[in-house]
Amino acid sequence: MTVSSKRFVTKVLASALTVGALSGPVATYAQDFDALINDTIVQIEGLSATQAELHQKLQTAYQEIEKIQGESAEISKAIAEDTRTLKEIEEEIAVLEETIANREQLLEEQARAVQVSNGSANYLNYVASSKSVTDLVGRVDVINRMVSANKDLIQLQIADKEAVETKHAQAVETLEAKEAKQKELETAKVELATQTASQEEAYNQLTNDITLAAAQRDALVAEREQYLEQQRLAYEAQLAQEAAANQASLEASVAAASQATSEAELQAQYNQALAEAQAQDAAIAQAQAEADQAAAEAEQARAYAQQAEAAAQEAEANVGVVQEAAPETLTQESVEVEQVDPEMPWEPVEETEAPVEETEAVVEEVETEQSWTAVTPEEAQAAREEAERAKAAAAQAEEASQVAQANVQSLISFAEQFIGTPYVWGGKEPGGFDCSGYVYYVFQQVYGINVGGWTGEQQNSGSRIGVGEAQAGDLYFWSNGEGAPYHVALATGNGNYLHAVDFGRPLSYGTVSDYFMPSFAVRVNK
């Protein structure tokens, strides 16, 4: 081997070592960024789990407050009824007291009349004037009955008064017990409201923490991509520099080989240079593959970040829509063509004759594949008619698809007007929505249909479908498997949806993800 060939081999080995040295730090620093990004994602997942647990507690507290309000309303109605009853009893007592007073006054007047007119003598005269013993007994009995009747009447009035007073006391006791119960409920309601306010504050703080963590994650992803891009550019520049140096060395080696006096030595030098050039091309190809792998890692990091971003957002299905399938894109493979310097010295080499038989066979095969098959006029006419029918059917399907798409687009456009609306629990008006109130309002306004005012009704407003089947206008539902779903959203297509998120978070877009995956979807009947 000549001195120039040895130098060439030395440069090739140096280039290979340079490629290995460049690939090491890139992978190391990329892994460091991946570790930081993964730590941030773990932090977001932990905060999201805590937020979900707190959300469940808030829902329970709101249900308890609603229950207390219902009980308080019932007790208020009962108190009002007892108050009316008590008033009626008091009026009845007043009437009885007045009647008793009047009768007592009448008895007193009768007693005074007897005293003034010597009533005892009158009774005696009445008895003494009896005409017979039977008459005597009868008159004595009349006098006894009169006296007894007056006494019985007085006792009856007293008993009636005592009964009414007892009834009055019981009514007062019942009223006081209900008022005490109402005060107890109001106290519990205030305590729950205080507890709920504290939990809402913690919930909002968690939301803020998740937002900050997501921003930190995005910054790390962007920094990683920038770092990988810088390393890739430096790597490609180094490869270009090494390739230029190797090319110059190869040209020098070939030039030196052209000056050899012996034809055998010249041929050996040419073969050696060619082998070394091929080895260098292989090293460059390997280095380029490693650069492509680094770029693929950057793309994977971007996809990973997008998936993690979907975890911080949240998630419901309304109307089906015919969507056009996206046409498949054919990718044309590029072919790398090696450029040959026309100025490079060369030596004549043995020519190899191309296999003519193989070439003719390939041409014949291509011509056979491109030949046409003859058809009869009847078959051609039938084919044309079938094509016309297919064209008409396609036009009808396209028209129906456009109408359905326009209807759904009207729904989505109307629903998008309320992005940024604050979350209000139980809200069904543009001033503030909760998740089910928002769905109820947009369907009522756009289609004039009532899908129900809460998730338990809305899940039965159409046919249930899989989450992956949901299209724009359908509803996504989230459920823990017990009772009615706890969240609903309006699907807008491609896995996106609009929903009234939660306390402290305005109405916004969300994306279906593994971190907040709907349980099922519903296509609303119209």
Briefly characterize the structure:
The chain has 526 residues and is an alpha+beta fold. Helices cover 70% and strands 6% of the residues. The protein contains 8 helices and 8 strands; from the N terminus they run H-H-H-H-H-H-E-E-H-H-E-E-E-E-E-E.
Report on the structure:
The protein is of the alpha+beta class and 526 residues long. Among the domains are: 33-240, Helix Hairpins (Orthogonal Bundle), CATH 1.10.287.1490; 419-524, Alpha-Beta Complex (endopeptidase fold (from Nostoc punctiforme)), CATH 3.90.1720. It contains 8 helices and 8 strands; from the N terminus they run H-H-H-H-H-H-E-E-H-H-E-E-E-E-E-E. It has a 6-stranded antiparallel β-sheet, covered by helices on one side. Helix 1 (3-116) packs antiparallel against helix 3 and helix 1 (3-116) packs parallel to helix 4 (263-312). The longest helix is centred in the middle third of the chain and has 126 residues, at 133-258. Residues 1-28 and 314-375 have low confidence and may be disordered.
Distance between the termini: 86 Å
**CATH topology name of the domain at 33-240:** Helix Hairpins
| Apparent shape | elongated
Query: Structural class of the secondary elements?
Result: alpha+beta
Order of helices and strands: HHHHHHEEHHEEEEEE
Percent of residues in helices:
over 70%
Q: Provide a count of the helices.
A: 8
The number of E-state strands comes to 8
At the first level of CATH, the class of the domain at 33-240 is: Mainly Alpha
